[in-house]
Amino acid sequence: MGTLRLRAVTLGTLRLQAVTMGTLRLQAVTMGTLRLQAVTMGTLRLRAVTLGTLRLQEVTMGTLRLQAVTLGTLRLQAVTMGTLRLRVVTMGTLRLRVVTLGTLRLRVVTLGTLRLQVVTLGTLRLQVVTLGTLRLQAVTLGTFTLAGGDYGYITLAGGDSGYITLAGGDSGYITLAGGDSGYIYACRR
After folding, report:
1. How many Å apart are CA 76 and CA 116, to the nearest integer?
2. Which candidate, 55, 56, 58, places its Cα nearest to that of 44?
3. Considering only CA atoms, which of 150, 148, 151, 152 is closest in space to residue 139?
4. CA 159 to chain centre
5. What are 92-110's pLDDT values in tens digits?
6. Which run of H or of E encompasses 28?
7. 137 CB neighbour count, 10 Å cutoff
8. Which of 46, 60, 138, 183 could crosslink 39 through cysteines, CB 3.0-4.6 Å?
């Protein structure tokens, strides 16, 4: 598997190590709480930096790239492969995820029992909010919006002024409105 080569240099608190064997190469630098590591093998590359509670890692292989940063309870991860991109941020109970693939974008935020999801594809947008048993959904396409929740209502909205609202449930009502002034209102119960 090739010739093994090892080098090590020490100067006070500074220490440098290098190992080479064929296409495999390992380097490590240490100085106090600072530590740097690098591994290379063909198209695979790994780098890691540590300084106190801060840690940075990066892995690259062809078009695939993975990055991770940790600082105390804060953690950031990013994955890239071609047009696909994934990012994850975690801090305590807070978690944020973002996925991008071409024009498609997905965002998810979680904080305890609260969850927010947003999907975007061109002018199409879908939002979902969940808090315990409560769930609210909204779909937007251009100026057109469709929303629905656990309290049974649907809203169709379009344009700067004209809108239509259809709602049902215990206090069920129907509202049809359009234009700056004209409207029709009907209520049951």
Report:
1. 19
2. 58
3. 148
4. 31
5. 889 999 999 988 999 999 9
6. strand 24-31
7. 16
8. 46
